[in-house]
């Protein structure tokens, strides 16, 4: 039996988030997630999908001839074979990022991968799942993200930023408004008023393609 993963979709688009926003990127979206964030824009990846071999996935990715590959979900680290997938993508020479909820251990991820670790805010309703041991593992090649639903979430995120010195540990600290919950302009004004060492990120793909799956 070959190594397999359950996959919702593989597509080529522009990266909508993080430090590579705007760059052409192949997305590999793994099926299944043990969390249920109230704002989740990818709930269609909770179930279904297709079981595929790593060889098959690598072959499809190679067909796009990308420079950047983003492994997302669902929650990629909920499937053990996400770890060899990430390693093989790095071996193939791509610049690889991993979007992960922050609820699962990120220690086994290949160090060439930029781990984009979400710290779930109270407004997500999944903040009790945060695994703070992950914060100690972050390096300059990693990114930490807060998806912010309200002023209360913003104040909470600022307190974690200070408590863990996140801007000193990770290469990027990203503050993203939860689409439909918080106006981007409000969050932008708060970040400027407080002179924070963070990057406001908007989800470019939602402006371009209005949240269609596969974009
Ligand atoms: C769909 S998740 C998949 C990866 C992983 N499960 C996670 O939560 O990081 C990818 C990213 O989209 C963010 N996201 C999901 N729904 C969102 C929304 N409505 N507005 C802004 N960001 C959202 C998540 O917080 C996460 O950072
Ligand atoms: N274009 C585009 N960029 C993205 N960056 C992160 C995504 C995700 O769903 O994790 C995503 C996505 O779904 N589409
Ligand atoms: S952890 Fe990620 S995929 Fe899972 S519900 Fe939350 S945002 Fe959606
Ligand atoms: Mg998405």
From TrEMBL:
One of its GO terms (biological process) is tRNA queuosine(34) biosynthetic process. Residues 20-211 form the Radical SAM core domain. Mg(2+) binds at residue 42. It catalyses: 6-carboxy-5,6,7,8-tetrahydropterin + H(+) = 7-carboxy-7-carbaguanine + NH4(+). Binds 1 S-adenosyl-L-methionine per subunit. Its cofactor is Mg(2+); S-adenosyl-L-methionine; [4Fe-4S] cluster. S-adenosyl-L-methionine binds at residues 39-41, 74. Its EC number is 4.3.99.3. GO terms for molecular function: 4 iron, 4 sulfur cluster binding; carbon-nitrogen lyase activity; magnesium ion binding; S-adenosyl-L-methionine binding. Keywords: 4Fe-4S, Iron, Iron-sulfur, Lyase, Magnesium, Metal-binding, Queuosine biosynthesis, S-adenosyl-L-methionine. InterPro entries: 7-CO-7-deazaguanine_synth-like (IPR024924), Aldolase_TIM (IPR013785), rSAM (IPR007197), rSAM_QueE_gams (IPR027621), rSAM_sf (IPR058240). PROSITE patterns: RADICAL_SAM (PS51918). Pathway: Purine metabolism; 7-cyano-7-deazaguanine biosynthesis. HAMAP family: QueE. PANTHER family: 7-CARBOXY-7-DEAZAGUANINE SYNTHASE (PTHR42836). Belongs to the radical SAM superfamily. 7-carboxy-7-deazaguanine synthase family. Homodimer. NCBIfam families: rSAM_QueE_gams. This is 7-carboxy-7-deazaguanine synthase.
């Amino acid at each position: 039996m070959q190594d397999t993963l359950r996959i919702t979709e593989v597509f080529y688009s522009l990266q909508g988030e993080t430090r590579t926003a705007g760059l052409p990127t192949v997305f590999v979206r793994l099926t299944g997630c043990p969390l249920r964030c109230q704002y989740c824009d990818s709930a269609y990846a909770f179930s279904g999908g297709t079981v595929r071999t790593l060889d098959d996935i690598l072959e499809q990715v190679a067909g796009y001839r990308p420079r950047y590959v983003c492994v997302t979900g669902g929650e990629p680290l909920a499937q053990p074979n996400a770890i060899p997938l990430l390693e093989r993508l790095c071996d193939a020479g791509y610049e690889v990022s991993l979007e992960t909820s922050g609820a699962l251990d990120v220690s086994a991820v290949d160090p060439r991968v930029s781990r984009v670790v979400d710290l779930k805010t109270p407004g997500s309703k999944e903040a009790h799942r945060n695994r703070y041991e992950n914060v100690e593992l972050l390096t300059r090649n990693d990114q930490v993200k807060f998806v912010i639903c309200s002023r209360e979430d913003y104040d909470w995120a600022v307190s974690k930023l200070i408590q863990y010195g996140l801007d000193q540990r990770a290469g990027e600290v990203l503050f993203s408004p939860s689409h439909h919950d918080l106006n981007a302009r409000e969050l932008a004004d708060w970040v400027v008023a407080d002179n924070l060492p963070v990057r406001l990120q908007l989800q470019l793909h939602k402006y371009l393609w209005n949240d269609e799956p596969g974009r």
